[in-house]
Write a structure and sequence with these properties.
The protein is mostly helical and 143 residues long. It is 55% helix and 8% strand. The protein is built from five helices and two strands.
């Protein structure tokens, strides 16, 4: 039987998937000029931030499962937010939730990093689980 910290991880991941999906849905309503805008302290444009967010979560799926999730498009072709949202909803979000249901707090991942193999607990490598409740509010992006 899973303990309460395991079920909390699944709930945090579900919340993260909901928040990311909601953010992508909201950003799809922005004009091309708005998607191309930047703000201090952000990861480039709004579009670039969405790309970064999805690619990071694909990487988290890899860290948790060892699976690489290839998108149904080429990143170099600058997919639309609608394409990214569709891929996120059908692949990444579901994979994160499923992985969270399988991962144990004691699971260890080994990864090559800058020529060395490092080992750490999988659950400690999920910064979005720690950050999303702190940074997401009930306020939507206003146009």
């Amino acid at each position: 039987m899973k303990n309460s910290s395991d079920s909390m991880l699944v709930e945090f991941i579900r919340y993260d998937v909901w928040a990311t999906s909601h953010l992508l849905d909201t950003c799809q309503k922005l004009s091309p000029d708005e998607l191309g805008s930047t703000a201090p302290g952000t990861y480039g444009t709004i579009y670039d931030t969405c790309v970064h967010l999805i690619r990071a979560e694909v990487f988290y799926v890899f860290l948790l499962t060892g699976e690489r999730l290839p998108p149904p498009f080429n990143w170099d072709d600058q997919p639309t937010l609608a394409q990214m949202r569709a891929a996120y909803g059908s692949q990444v979000g579901n994979a994160l939730i499923q992985a969270a249901g399988r991962v144990k707090a004691t699971d260890v991942v080994r990864q090559d990093w800058q020529g060395e193999t490092v080992a750490y607990q999988k659950i400690n490598n999920l910064p979005f689980v720690q950050l999303i409740p702190a940074i997401y509010t009930d306020k939507e992006i206003k146009r």
